[in-house]
Design brief:
The chain is mainly alpha-helical. It is 78% helix and 0% strand.
Length: 325
């Protein structure tokens, strides 16, 4: 391998390490880069996008400086703070399994100490609670809905990662909790910030989160061996790799189509057609990559297909806002 190729591979590995992606390398010494790696910035994107979808579904977002700053603060809350808290907490409780699957991660590699990780968890949660209360005050909520969503999300993250419940040990409960955290919770936050959160939005986004369950299953394929050794009942462990792959894609496609059907029901036909058209390339990439080789192509599939899923979320949000749901 040439020197230039080695440098490119090294740079790519360091970037993946910083973002918290699969295929990283060890050797980082900067404490701030290690802290950022624990927070897995790559996972912030869907939560930030969920806030955008919630603002759209409220039907009340306008492009004023104040509302833009409110939205940015909510994105900071949902992404870097709460997703960062969740990922750091998960790494803390997963240090044994990471020693098998991803030994280059900061905790199993010994690059950062356990007390430093605990401090990071508490600081992220504390800042998130303060910011959520600040948003409630800023908007003038009579009931502190943003604070309650933050505390609920923090509790869900804890029971997902920590014993005795450790929901992630159960492939169905754990992945649904993850899907709801990445779709429903930030959606509710965005909607509540600019409108009034109602049961229709709550139920629809929980339904949409069943597609998020399928996305969460994709992430289980990278850790099949470690899950099997430690007795974690992920779907690939319970059903086998190929069957789990089919369960995954069916969940992703069927529940997006269900949202499309609801949009037709409320007479948002154009939005429904766009949403259903966005499912087609996802099915194509499922056939091209994921179903043929789930273990080898999980990352490639996500990179190819997920942009269409998240665009569909925004289409649904705009449709709900337009319909005044």
């Amino acid at each position: 391998m040439s020197d230039s190729s080695s440098k490119i591979n090294e740079k790519s590995s360091k970037t993946r390490q910083l973002l918290g992606m699969k295929g990283a390398s060890s050797g980082e010494t900067s404490i701030w880069k290690l802290r950022l790696q624990l927070m897995k910035p790559i996972t912030w994107i869907p939560l930030i996008w969920g806030v955008v979808c919630g603002a759209a579904s409220s039907g009340n977002y306008t492009w004023s400086p104040e509302k833009f700053l409110m939205a940015a603060a909510c994105m900071l809350l949902s992404g870097p703070l709460m997703a960062g808290y969740t990922q750091t907490l998960n790494d803390f409780y997963d240090r044994e399994i990471d020693a098998i699957n991803e030994p280059y991660r900061p905790i199993p590699s010994g690059a950062i100490s356990v007390p430093q990780v605990v401090t990071q968890i508490l600081v992220l949660l504390g800042v998130a609670v303060a910011l959520s209360y600040g948003l409630d005050t800023w908007v003038g909520h009579d009931f502190p809905i943003m604070l309650c969503l933050t505390l609920g999300g923090a509790f869900l993250a804890y029971i997902y990662s920590a014993p005795p419940l450790k929901l992630k040990q159960n492939g169905w409960l754990g992945n649904y909790a993850l899907g709801a955290s990445y779709i429903a919770l930030p959606w509710w936050a965005g909607h509540a910030l600019f409108g009034e959160l109602n049961w229709t939005i709550v139920i629809l986004t929980l339904f949409y989160s069943l597609a998020g369950l399928g996305i969460a299953v994709v992430n289980d394929f990278k850790s099949v061996e470690g899950d099997r050794q430690l007795g974690l009942k992920s779907l690939p462990v319970m059903f086998g790799v190929n069957t789990a792959a089919w369960v995954c894609v069916i969940m992703i496609d069927v529940f997006q189509a269900g949202i499309g059907a609801y949009l037709i029901y409320i007479h948002q036909n154009l939005y429904a057609a766009i949403l259903l058209l966005l499912v087609i390339p996802q099915i194509t990439f499922q056939d091209m990559y994921f179903l043929r080789a789930p273990l080898e192509n999980d990352v490639k599939y996500q990179a190819s297909a997920q942009p269409f899923l998240v665009l569909g979320m925004l289409v649904a949000g705009l449709a709900l806002g337009h319909a005044g749901v």
